[in-house]
């Protein structure tokens, strides 16, 4: 049976791991690699070429060169350019003292970080200087070597250059890929910001336009009948007061969401429901529009239900603004896969040159968001018609 203290330690392990600075495992890997490479270089001091010892320097110099070639790799992520300079200098000393003719692996590792972290012009300059310096040291070293390999100095210079270039190109490709990914993430964030602004604009427009349109109509009525029919003027003022309070409540709700850190979509989506269409119709009746409301729709997804509500709200707002007094018919029905909205009125003919307002644009956006269709325009016999069809089956509602 495990002891309580042991169990607590096991449960705390994920928390402790999260406290480790990001990238620590990479630094540890570099440190291990540097230690192993340092050990390998110490072994190079006792390597023979034929019957002769390859290394021509004293013991202390071999240790110093091995440290210069290998140990800086442990901190290459902190200081890429200085590490490259130390490694190249030590590799040149290794070549000139015949300590080794390995393909300058430490230089390639350092060049990878230089290409990854530094601007392209600076990293390319560092690459050129490193390859020329290392190639020159190899050439001079092999030109004075008494045990000359069959391949000659050109082979080794080209081989080391290709190895270093591979390290630099790998870092350059990774840097380019990360930059492209960062740009894509930034563009997605900008698109999300624009979409959120459009969502806010639609909500504010629907709340403000509907309330202000009703207020404007009732204020005009009250102004004209104030002297002769004070009772009707008082009724108009009561409607204005009620509408103003309702609009302020909705405005405060939206502004409260904007000021908080809560998800805007989650807060705005479930607000109005189809059960509130009767209240919308009653408000329009107070403004002089005779509304015939028919709702034959069952349960709808919250987002679709909000879109249907806002489309009806904006349509009634337009009737109040442009057609009152008039008759209006509102039909909302669904067949289990699609919900259809139709709002028609018998008001005066709409001028052909009247531009489409933000309300029509917002209604179209709400319908097309779910793959639906939307149309709005004058009726042949006068008045205006708004029609929308929004699918809400498995393929119709976005996740």
Automatic annotation (TrEMBL):
Tell me where in this chain the Signal transduction histidine kinase subgroup 3 dimerisation and phosphoacceptor domain is found. 196-261
UniProt keyword annotations, A-Z: ATP-binding, Kinase, Membrane, Nucleotide-binding, Phosphoprotein, Transferase, Transmembrane, Transmembrane helix, Two-component regulatory system
One GO MF term, please?
Answer: ATP binding
Fetch the InterPro entries from UniProt. DUF7134, HATPase_C_sf, HATPase_dom, Sensor_HK_TwoCompSys, Sig_transdc_His_kin_sub3_dim/P
Specify the superkingdom.
Bacteria
Recorded E.C. number(s)? Answer: 2.7.13.3
Task: Write down what this protein is called.
Answer: histidine kinase
* Provenance organism: Amycolatopsis arida
């Amino acid at each position: 049976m495990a002891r309580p203290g042991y169990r607590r330690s096991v449960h705390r392990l994920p928390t402790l791991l999260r406290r480790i600075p990001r990238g620590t495992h990479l630094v540890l890997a570099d440190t291990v690699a540097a230690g192993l490479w340092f050990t390998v270089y110490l072994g190079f001091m006792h390597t023979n070429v034929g019957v002769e010892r390859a290394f021509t320097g004293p013991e202390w110099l071999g240790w110093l060169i091995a440290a210069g070639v290998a140990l800086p790799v442990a901190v290459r992520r902190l200081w890429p350019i200085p590490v490259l300079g130390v490694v190249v200098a030590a590799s040149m000393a290794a070549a000139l003292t015949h300590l080794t003719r390995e393909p300058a692996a430490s230089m390639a590792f350092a060049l990878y970080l230089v290409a990854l972290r530094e601007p392209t012009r600076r990293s390319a300059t560092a690459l050129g200087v490193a390859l020329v310096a290392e190639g020159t040291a190899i050439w001079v070293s092999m030109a004075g070597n008494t045990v000359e390999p069959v391949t000659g100095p050109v082979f080794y210079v080209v081989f080391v250059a290709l190895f270093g270039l591979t390290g630099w190109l790998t870092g350059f490709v990774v840097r380019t890929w990360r930059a492209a990914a960062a740009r894509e993430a930034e563009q997605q964030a900008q698109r999300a910001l624009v979409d959120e602004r459009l969502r806010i604009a639609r909500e504010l427009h629907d709340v403000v336009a509907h309330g202000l349109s009703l207020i404007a109509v009732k204020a005009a009525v009250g102004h004209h009948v104030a002297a002769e029919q004070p009772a009707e003027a008082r009724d108009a003022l009561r409607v204005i007061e009620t509408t103003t309070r309702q609009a302020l409540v909705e405005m405060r709700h939206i502004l409260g969401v904007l000021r908080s850190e809560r998800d805007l979509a989650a807060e705005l989506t479930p607000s109005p429901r189809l059960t509130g269409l009767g209240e919308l119709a009653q408000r329009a009746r107070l403004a002089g529009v005779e509304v015939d409301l028919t709702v034959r729709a069952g349960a709808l997804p919250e987002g679709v239900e909000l879109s249907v509500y806002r489309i009806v709200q904006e349509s009634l707002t337009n009737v109040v603004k442009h057609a009152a007094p008039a008759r209006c018919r509102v039909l909302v029905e669904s067949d289990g896969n699609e919900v259809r909205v139709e709002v028609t009125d018998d008001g005066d003919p709409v001028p052909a040159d009247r531009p489409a307002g933000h309300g029509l644009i917002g209604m179209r956006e709400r319908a097309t968001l779910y793959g639906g269709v939307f149309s709005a325009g004058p009726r042949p016999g006068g008045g205006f018609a708004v029609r929308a069809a929004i699918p809400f089956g498995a393929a119709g509602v976005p996740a």
